[in-house]
Structure formats: C-alpha cells, structure tokens
C-alpha cells in the first residue's frame, strides 16, 4: 500500500506551485480489515467532487481540490482546482497560515488549476461536501468522522515550534457537527491491542470534550475510516479500522 507525498505547500494561504514531477512514494502497512485503496481507485473520481490530497510536510492529507473534469480513467488524467484560503479569521486571531501551518478546516476557495496523472496523490473523497458560488467551500469535522488532532497543540505555536512537537498526534471520533457557538464535540480513540489500525472509542464519560471555535486549528486532518460494528467478530463495539496512509508513522506500530 502506497501514498505519494505531493510537492504542494501553502504559501500565505495560496498554493505557490503545482504537483511536482518529483513525487515521493511511501510504502505504508496494510490495514487490518478494510481495503482503503478501493475507495480511491481511478474509477472513483467524478466532476464536482472534493478530494483530500497528501501534503509535503509529513505526508498527511491536509490539502483539498475540486475535480473539474475526468479526462480519462486509464491512463488516469483529471483536471482539478486547488482549494485554499487567505485567512483564518473564522476561528479568531491566531496567525496559523502566516506562520506556515496548513489549514485543514474552515472556509476555502478555488484557486489554481492543475492536471493530475497520478492517483496515489489522493487520500479520500469528502462526502457530502460541495462547492458553492464562486468556488467557496466550508469544510468542518462532521459527526461520525475520524480526525487526527495535534496532541501538543497550543496558541503559542510559531515557525520555530519543533517538528517533534508539531508531529505528535492522537485520534478522535467526531460526535457532533461543528457549530460556531460550541465548536466540535469529540471522543478520544484508543488503539486495540494486537492491531496496527484498529481503534476503539474511549467510553469514559469524562473523556468526551468540546473543541471550541478558537481551537479548531487543533484538527490536523481527517482520517478515512471503516466502522467495524457488525463486520468483525470478537471485537468490542464502536471500533474503527483506520487508513494507514493517513495515520502518522508514530501510531502505526502494532500494540502488543
């Protein structure tokens, strides 16, 4: 199973370049149950869809694009427009974009266009998301989705924040849709012993918490997931198989 880190980077909120010819393919472990590659095969793409792409920071799917046209399936060739943002004002006054961090939720707009001929730069389809007038898109964590959050996130993060602090994550399940008044309700996920990619919701009542609007940059990226309820024997309720291509390396080691 492979993911390709696209040489894309946010520059003041707008992509400064196109997908480079110097793409880096990374082999990741196979998932424990679900074949996530089937969900991003060449046949899955259609006009007006919104997809997430892997970035060049640590290869996680924090970038978005709008599919304009499927030129051909085999060989794979599609026309896309990248979605980006000039501002992070919808979440308060933190200078997230100007400090060089990638914004993965909030308000986005269609910017530069490109032609893509490599399917493994794409992570997943954003289901239920559509572009509005002028190519405007609102992307927020939705109920039932799994997201990675920055474990040590702080409003004090700057360009000098060490990589080992920035690239430490935990997985959460979104329990309620985003609202400007309350933010997002989440529950932590706990990795199941003996598996690489299976997680279970932390059922402790005090584990559930709200991420308020000013802290929405705590969300790193959505992780494609597959509910295992009723699909696998000998597993507890509320278990998920997570896509290893969107799971940070530190979390991929099988728990003994």
The CA-CA distance between the termini, in Å, is 23 Å
Largest sheet data: 8 strands, antiparallel
Sequence of secondary-structure elements: EEEEEEEEEEEHEEEEEEE
How much is the radius of gyration in Å?
18 Å
User: What's the overall average pLDDT, rounded?
Assistant: 88
Which percent bin holds the helix content? under 10%
Low-confidence stretches: 7-21
- SS content category: mainly beta
Shape: globular
**Tally of individual domains:** 1
User: Per DSSP, what share of the residues sits in E-state strands of 2 or more residues?
Assistant: 35-45%
What's the helix count? 1
Strand count: 18
Domain DUF3444: 25-231
InterPro entries: DUF3444
Protein name: DUF3444 domain-containing protein
Pfam family, one: DUF3444
Describe the structure.
- Pfam families: DUF3444.
- The chain is an all-beta fold and 256 residues long.
- It has one domain (2-251).
- Helices cover 2% and strands 38% of the residues.
- It is built from one helix and 18 strands.
- Strands 11, 12, 13, 14, 15, 16, 17 and 18 form an eight-stranded antiparallel beta sheet that branches. Strands 9-5-6-7-8-10 form a six-stranded antiparallel beta sheet, with no helix packed on it.
- Strand 6 (63-72) and strand 7 form a beta hairpin.
- The protein is globular and about 45 Å long.
- It starts with a strand and ends in a 14-residue tail after the last strand.
Write the layout of secondary structure elements.
Layout: E1 2-5, E2 10-11, E3 14-15, E4 24-27, E5 50-53, E6 63-72, E7 77-84, E8 106-116, E9 122-125, E10 136-139, E11 146-150, H1 163-166, E12 169-179, E13 183-191, E14 198-201, E15 209-211, E16 219-223, E17 225-227, E18 239-242
Antiparallel strand pairs: 1-4, 2-3, 5-6, 5-9, 6-7, 7-8, 8-10, 11-12, 11-16, 12-13, 13-14, 13-15, 14-18, 17-18
């Amino acid at each position: 199973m492979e993911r390709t880190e696209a040489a894309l980077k946010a520059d003041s909120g707008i992509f400064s370049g196109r997908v480079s010819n110097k793409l880096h393919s990374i082999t990741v472990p196979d998932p424990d149950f679900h074949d996530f590659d089937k969900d991003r095969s060449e046949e899955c793409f259609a006009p007006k869809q919104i997809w997430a792409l892997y970035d060049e920071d640590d290869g996680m799917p924090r970038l978005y694009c709008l599919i304009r046209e499927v030129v051909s399936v085999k060989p794979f060739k599609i026309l896309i427009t990248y979605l980006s943002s000039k501002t992070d004002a919808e979440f308060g006054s933190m200078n997230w974009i100007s400090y060089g961090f990638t914004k993965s939720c909030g308000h986005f707009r269609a910017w530069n266009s490109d032609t893509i001929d490599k399917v493994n730069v794409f992570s997943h389809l954003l289901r239920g998301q559509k572009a509005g007038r002028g190519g405007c898109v609102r992307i927020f964590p939705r109920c039932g989705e799994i997201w990675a959050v920055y474990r040590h996130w702080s409003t004090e993060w700057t360009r000098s924040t060490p990589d080992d602090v920035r690239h430490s994550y935990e997985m959460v399940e979104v329990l309620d849709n985003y609202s400007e008044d309350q933010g997002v309700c989440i529950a932590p996920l706990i990795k199941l012993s003996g598996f690489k990619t299976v997680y279970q919701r932390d059922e402790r009542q005090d584990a559930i918490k709200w991420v308020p609007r000013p802290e929405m940059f705590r969300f790193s990226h959505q992780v494609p997931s597959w509910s295992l309820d009723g699909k696998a024997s000998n597993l507890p309720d509320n278990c998920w198989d997570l896509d290893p291509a969107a799971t940070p390396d530190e979390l991929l080691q099988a728990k003994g």
